[in-house]
Amino acid sequence: MGQLYERGARRLRALYDRRLPGPAVLDAARHFPDAARFVAALPALRAEALDVARQFAAIPRFHDIMHAQADISANDARDWRMYIMQAYGVPIRRNLARCPALAALVAHSPDVLSASFSFLGPGKHIPPHRGPFRGIVRGYVPLVMPLDAAGRPAAILTVDGVAHRLHEGEFMLWDDTFEHEVRNTSDEVRVVLLLDIRRRGLPPGLRLLSNVIIGTVGLGIRLQRAKIAV
Description:
This protein has helices at about 5-20, 30, 35-40, 40-55, 60-65, 70-75, 95, 100-105, 205-230; strands spanning about 25, 80-85, 90, 110-120, 125-130, 135-145, 155-160, 160-165, 170-175, 180-185, 190-200. The chain is of the alpha+beta class. The chain has a single domain (about 5-230), classed as Jelly Rolls (Sandwich), CATH 2.60.120. The strands form two sheets. A seven-stranded antiparallel beta sheet has the order 1-9-6-11-4-2-3. Strand 2 and strand 3 (about 90) form a beta hairpin. The radius of gyration is 17 Å and the shape is globular.
């Protein structure tokens, strides 16, 4: 990961950590009530993701979009591809138009800043890393989840040392500033919906800072929209 990015991320995490205690995994019903709407739309969301996957090779790898993340995306020869439909409040209109069910959900969920389909190739391991700041929380919904020989989800999300095996349609809300990693132990592609959600209940100073960061990152996303659109 780029040294400048990581140095800034460490400082941001320290600033938030001093004023914002909290667990790694959050109660979705309390912190993101719209989670139930996304879970209810599972069949439509899965169908849209599978339609996108028909052009798998055209979906950019994560490090092609964010070069600073090459050490967690390009760490091996296996695929981690991201179909981004909205990023930090900036719609990627061409991608959204292909996924009307997801687009409608996002349009009616103002706290959702980013929405992406994440395609994790067979055997892919995303090594331990941490997100940059606590002004957002991460929503994670498996849409296509391979199973192992014991019938358990074969893609494992480990957050703050705890392994989570989520079945299709389960919703997990978590703070990605805690160390986390993902491993797909199967020989199939795992597909999840990833959401970045504005964190509620921030102190006024942190809320203002979060809005500034979100807006600044959004400006950078606007400059990359052509590279993100598929």
